[in-house]
Amino acid sequence: MCFGRCARCVGYKLLILALLCIVANTLLYFPNGETRFASEHHLGKYVECLHGILGGGFLVLIPAAVFIGLHNDDCCGCFGHQGCGKSCAMLSSVLAAFVGILGSGYCIIISALGLSQGPYCFTHLERNWNYPFTDSSGGYLFEYNKWSRCQEPQNIVQWNVTLFSILLVLGGIEFILCFIQIINGILGGLCGLCCNHEEV
């Protein structure tokens, strides 16, 4: 199996996942498609952490671009040995994979914290903006009858739970793919770009 081809496959998957993270995080800023809550600063603190845009998004786009570029056979090599240059390129992809690990890890952590704390909303009991589910430590996720405590934005609990869950899953997949590329990059760097040296 060609290590460069595997890296390219991982890169394209990360590209798609990173774009999905950016979209999901952007939607968190606009509950029910409304912009007034963002302009009035009525968003939860974990919504504003840019974990999907910066972490699972741009920090994962960097390794994605590196991995996709590894498939190109434009390495000049070192000391006249083209295989050496390709091996060095595969080993350098490990550094890019670590950037992806950091970005996806940040996305996972913030998404988990956002799910645990619950949304920032206007409640009918306190008649104020607060975090009504903070003390439940995520238990509110299974207590659907309590979700109605949030009056504004409408359906904010469903909105947050859905998008934070999506970001958590996407970040987890990105983390796994970057970890796979670390192994692939080390093996590719040690064994050469391809297991079969006759493969083009």
From TrEMBL:
TM stretches of this protein: 12-30, 50-70, 91-115, 156-180
Topological relation to the membrane, as annotated: Multi-pass membrane protein
A single cellular component GO annotation: membrane
Keyword flag Transmembrane: yes
Pfam families listed in its UniProt record: L6_membrane (PF05805)
Cellular localization per UniProt: Membrane
Domain of life according to the entry: Eukaryota
Keywords (A to Z) from UniProt: Membrane, Transmembrane, Transmembrane helix
UniProt entry tagged with the keyword Nucleotide-binding: no
Family (UniProt): Belongs to the L6 tetraspanin family.
Annotated protein name in UniProt: Transmembrane 4 L6 family member 1
Source organism per UniProt: Acanthisitta chloris
